[in-house]
Amino acid sequence: MFLIDCPWCGPRDESEFSYGGEAHIERPKTPEKLTDDEWADYLFRRTNPKGPHRERWMHASGCRRWFNVVRDTYSHEISAVYKMGVTPPDAET
Amino acid sequence: MAKYSILSLLRNARSYHENWSRAWRSPEPKGSYDVIIIGGGGHGLATAYYLAKEHGITNVAVLEKGWLGGGNTGRNTTIVRSNYLWDESANIYEKSLKLWEGLSQDLNFNVMFSQRGVMNLAHNQHDLRDLSRRVNAIRLNGVDSEILTPAQIKALCPMINISPTARYPILGASFQRRGGTARHDAVAWGFARAADQRGVDIIQNCEVTGIRRKGGRVVGVETTRGFIASNKIGAAAAGHSGVIAAMAGLRLPLESHPLQALVSEPLKPILDTVVMSGAVHVYISQSDKGELVMGAGIDSFNSYAQRGALRTIEEMMAACIELFPFVSRLRLMRQWAGIVDTCPDASPIVGKTPIEGFYINCGWGTGGFKATPGAGWCFAHTIAHDQPHSLNRPFTLERFSTGDLIDEHGAAGVAH
Known about the structure:
heterodimer; A: 93 residues; mainly beta; four-stranded antiparallel β-sheet; two-stranded antiparallel sheet; 1 helix; 6 strands; globular; B: 416 residues; alpha/beta; eight-stranded mixed β-sheet; six-stranded mixed β-sheet
C-alpha cells in the first residue's frame, strides 16, 4: 500500500489507481520492417527491474487520466511523477 | 546418511531422538562445478536431484541467497493438480503429477502428498460450459477430470454455500480427484537431502551477484562467497529470474508481482478437499495443522517487496465469506506474499538461452509449486543434454519470437 501523487488530484491511495505496466514502450514506427525478434521485444520482453521502475498509472477512481511514475519496486518509494509525453527523469535518482 | 524407516525411528527413539544425523551437509563452495543451479527452492533442488539421479551429474552446486525453500517454495498454498487445457501443458503438468505420486518413496522423505481432490467452481452458465469444455479436453489427454453437480459439491464439502440466492451461486464444478496438496517445506527438504546424498553441494547464504561470460558463453558466477566457475549455469530463481537474467545481459518476457496468501487459526477437520474459484479469486484448503490456507490473486503492480496490498486480500476474503459463511468468524493468523514471475501467456519458460551454457527455468507465475518435480526433471534433462526434452520443447524462449504461445490464462488465471 502506498500513496500516489496524481498530477491533477494530489496524493491518493494506490487502490484508486489502475496499473499500466512499464512506461516508454514505443510502438514501432516501421512495423512492416520489424523482425520476429524485434516484435518479441516490443510485445513481450520487459525490463522488470528490482529498483527504480518507470511505469504508467491511471487515476481510475478520480480524474481517469494517465501519467508516469518512477517507483522503486522493492521499497515502493515513488521518486518522480510526470505527465505523459514528458522526457523521463533519470530512473536512477 | 541414514535411510529413514520405521527401524531408524525406533532406533532413534531409544536415544530420545537426540542423535539424528543432519539431513544434508553444509559444505564450503568449491572452486568449480560441472553445473551450478541458482536458487535453492523446490525447482532448483529438484533439478540438482534429477541431474544426479537421471543423468549421473553429481558435481553440482545449488546456490541459495537465503535459506532453503525460503522463497516461493515456502510461500505458496501447496496445491498440486494437472488440469490444464492445452496438450503441451497437460503433458508437462501430468508428468509432474505422476512424479508427485511416487515422490515420498523416491526421496525417502515424506512430502505428505495428499490426493484430496481439487475443485474449480462455476458461478454462471458460461463458467459451467467453459469448465465442461476443459474437462473434455483434459480427459482426451488422459488426465482425470469430471464435472460435479451442486449436490455432489455439497456432499464433498458440506460447509459451502450452494444457495441459489448466494452472491456467487454455484452451478457446478470441475474436479480432479488425483489433485491435492503436499507439504511445501518437506518438498524442499526432501529434494535437498536426496540431492546431497548423491553428492550435490547445497550452499546457503550465497547470493549470486554476477554472471561471468567469455565470448558468448558463461564461465561462472560471482557470489557473496567469491567466484565459482562452471560452464553450465541453470537459473531457477522464480520472481528474481529477471534480475539473474539481467546479470547475463538478457531481457525476459517476465514481470514480477506479489502473490498473497494467508492462514486462519487452526480448526478441527472441516474441509478435506481443495476448493478454487477463478471467477472470484479464491482458493482454499485445510492444512494438516488445521489452518485454513487461502490465496488471492496477484497485485497488479510490479514488485519485489514480498508484501502485498491489503485490498487484494480484502477482496479475496469478501468472496471467500460468500462461499463459506463460517469463515467470517475466524481469526487470521498470518499473511504474506511471494514474488511470482508472470509470463504473457501464463505458461512457463524452461530451456536454453541465446547465451551458451546459460539455462533458465522461470515464468511459472502463480503456479510453480505443483510443477516442482516435473520442472526439475525437464530442466535437468535440458542442462544435461544441452537441449530441451520433448516435454519442455514447447516451453522454450523461442515461442515469443515464433508466436507459438501456449495460452493458459484460463487454467492459470488466478488459482494455481
